[in-house]
Structure formats: structure tokens, C-alpha cells
């Protein structure tokens, strides 16, 4: 009997024939183009079985492929039926290159203009002999008969005590910038941008507190918001004020028509190509420009910076209780799922915990080598003695969003020498990046090698970025800044929160990742103004995996100071037994 994926692929091919198409592009995205999507938009998973948060599929009459990046290659191999789908690394074999090599001459390739950005579509537009055809609706949805409903939960207020700046002030500031650039308005599809701009939140996406909505920000600081009236309680409508005009989503086309003759900013990366096509059809002039909220949202204000410190204190208490629990007899024989549930329970015992910021990556032994491993009842395994356990998790609090990874040795025997050496090289990368000072104008690309250097000296590396931006009670993955091998024009600026997460993965054996969040802030000294990182995460590194001969004296001093800070800030909030454990975990390291 064919797999569900094979049957669905066959049905899709029949549908393509009926629509006069030779192929179809299926991205992992919804109309809002976010990394994380509601269940009703998980079309890629429904069709292929692949549940990663980044990917694409391309279907032709006699071949089909699924693409994702290095974080998900192992997961893709496990989830995708190789008998009917090729599994490709998206950077080694880009979807457009694969299509160019596989498509028949004069092929008509369909795509849904409502769920693909101009930037995502652009590589396909240059292919010789291929005609791109926007479909009437989404073809996958025709086959997905039991597709979940669109989220119905209401929007909520994000108070000024957490936001630190009123929506009116944000809109005025950004509206003036639009006017200065000659734009009458800008389209916002990123729900995190809409949430930040209007100081609202929601529960439409698991783990990400946003309400799914489009908005048009005008130069006069007014906003057209496209959101079902049923999702807008009276108190939220009052909070938004009279300058935010609320429309049903079905009216989007007609409201865009009122922009005829005006210049409208459209971010080609965060807005669906449908917006450009529709505005052009209505006689507007489309100007490609970044989402105006991206950079201001990334640069946390003083209130948000203070809030993230409070969030990380709460999170650190839960993390240290969890790490202590892992070392107790009670945790013996626990499984990956049970461990993730226990950590979530510790967080929930704190104040104002709003849930995970992403589903925890809880991987023991070989599962830890799957970079974005998602534990399921079928894959759940016991944390065995004398193996590596990796836990990557985060929490949502009204004050901020957290994301932290720790890798521990289960014991009771000593860890193997090679494992300790590799762990320490990863640790040195984290510490080296964390203590960096850099001048204004520095990009994350310029700093990435600091985290990889010690691994490179041993011929090792990792196939993912070193750091991503993090929101303020918003998405755990936030642009526009990043720390990565891939070049970026975005400089690191005061108030940005990023992750610092080097790693190493031995397929079939173990994974190591050490992640802390850092806050960029200005730092003057010796008449040399510049920037530095403030480490926000408060959780010790496992000393059982540290090779002192590899660590070195300078890193040892830095680590001792970090552990002393953890003991000072977290220790007073722990029960006595956990506090005693933390005292040992944070004690100065013994030199040779």
C-alpha cells in the first residue's frame, strides 16, 4: 500500500493535469509568510510529511523534491518518503536549479501568489523555457479536505508597562520615515510587525504570541488593519484608537485599490508577491523597501531591555531547577518527552509564564545530532547512563522571550576524552563570541568565525547559523540581524537581542549545542567607543564535559565569572537542595 504522502502526491499530479500545469511550487509558508504557521497552513507537512519550519517542495509529473537547510536534513531524511520524493539541501541544490534541470520544455509551473514572496519567487522567474502561472486559489487546499480551521482566538492588549512605547508614537515615528522616503503607505504582512506596531498580541500561532493580520501603515500614522471583527474584543478596539481602521480580510483587494496613484512600500521578502501584483493592477507605484517595523522592533527600548532581564531571571530559576532535577534519582529512567514536560512544568510554576517559545528540542544520544529534532511518542527514548543529552527550549513571558540550549552528560562514569575536547571547543566558541567588542557598523557575518574558530582548528564545523534575533514577547526567531556565515548588510545595533549558539553534531551518536542569548549595547572604553554583548541567559555549563587543558586560563576566568553571576542571581530563589547543587555546578573550575 502506498504511503499517505505518495497517495497525496499522485492526487496532486492529477489536479495539475486538470489545471493545465506541468508542475507546482509549494513553499512552507502561509499568507503572512512567517516562519511558524498555524495548523491550517501546514500544507508542506500534509503533502510531504516534512514538519520543519523551513522548506519547499517542487512537484512535476514524473519527479518531485523536498528542500530544506542544514538544520533539518536529518529530520527530512526521517520524515519524507524517499520512494516518491527526492530530499535536497536547499543551498547545495536550490529549488530553481532543480526545476531547471528536471522540467520539460515550455513547462507551465503553478504557484500560489498569496503565499510566496517576490524574493522567494525571483529565482524561478529567470529560468529559460518555463512559464510561471499564478493559480486560482491554493491547489493543495482542494485536496486537503480535513484542513483545520483558521484560528479564532481574540487579539489581546500588550500594555505599555511591557511595550515601553505607545502605538501612536511608533506609528508617528515610522509614518514620518515613510513620508521622508516618498512613500504614502507601506504594507505589513509580518504578524510580528503588526503586533509590535499596534501593541497587541494573540495566540494564533503555537508558541508565538501574535494575531494573524495584515496592515497598511500610512504616512499620516493611521493604519488599515485587516482582521475579523470576531477576533477584536471591545477593549482591544478601544486600545487601538480611532486612527486604526479595522476591515474584514475579504476587503483587502478593495482597500488596496484606494492606493491608486500613490507610492507604496512593499518588502519583497516579507510580503506575498500578490501584494505587488494587486497594487500594480490598481495603478499604485510599488517601491521595494524593507518592512519599516523590522529594525525598530529589533532595537529593544529601555523598558524591553529591562523586561528581558526579568524574563531571563525567571527562566534561569526554572532551568537551574530542571538541571538539578536531571541529576537526582527521581530523573533516572526519564524519557525525552518526560524531560521536556518537566522543564515546562518548572517554568509554569513561575509568574506570568505564557508557554514555550518553540517546541522543546529534547534529544538524547543520537537524537541530539538531529539539529531541530522534534520528539514524538514514536521517537521518544530514555536518557540512558553515560550519554549526551541536549535540551534546547525557551519560554514566553510578557516581559520577553527566551531561548537556551544546554548539553549535559548523564554519567555516572566520566565522559570520553574526545567528547570533552569537542564540547570544550564549542564552549570556547560561545565564550569567544560572547566577549567580543566591535565597532559600529559591524555585521554578524564579521563575528561568525569567532564562534567557529576552535572547531575549525580540529577540522570540525556545524551546518547552521551561529545567531538569530529574538523578539520581545514575540517570535523567538526575529530579523533582520543574524550571526552567520552568510553575508548580511544589517549591522548589530544597540538593543538587539541575538542568540549565541555554536554546536557540533556527530550523526548517529550525539549533538552538542551551547546557546545563550545576548543583548547588544554600546560600550565606551579607552577612547574607543563600540559595542559589546551582555549575556542574558542564566544557566551553568556542565563542568563534567569540560576539558581544562583545552579551555585555557582566559576562558576559565570568564566562565568562573559567569557561573558566579548565576549563583548570585539565581541561588537565592532556589530550594535548599537545588541551591546546594547550583553551588557545586557554579564553583570555580579546578586548574591543572
UniProtKB/TrEMBL annotation:
Q: Which domain of life is it from?
A: Bacteria
Q: Which residues form the Peptidase M24 domain?
A: 308-522
Similarity comment text for this entry: Belongs to the peptidase M24B family.
One of the Pfam families matching this protein, by short name: Peptidase_M24_C
**Peptidase M24 C-terminal domain ranges (all copies):** 531-589
Organism for this UniProt entry? Acetobacter persici
Give the Gene Ontology MF terms in alphabetical order.
Answer: metal ion binding; metalloaminopeptidase activity
Supply the name of the protein.
Answer: Xaa-Pro aminopeptidase
Q: Which GO terms describe its cellular component?
A: cytoplasm
- Give all residue intervals belonging to the Creatinase N-terminal domain: 8-137
Gene3D superfamilies linked: Creatinase/methionine aminopeptidase superfamily, Creatinase/prolidase N-terminal domain
| Keyword Ribonucleoprotein listed | no
Segments traversing the membrane: none
> PANTHER family this protein is in?
XAA-PRO AMINOPEPTIDASE 1
Keyword field: Aminopeptidase, Hydrolase, Metal-binding, Protease
The answer to whether keyword Protease applies is: yes
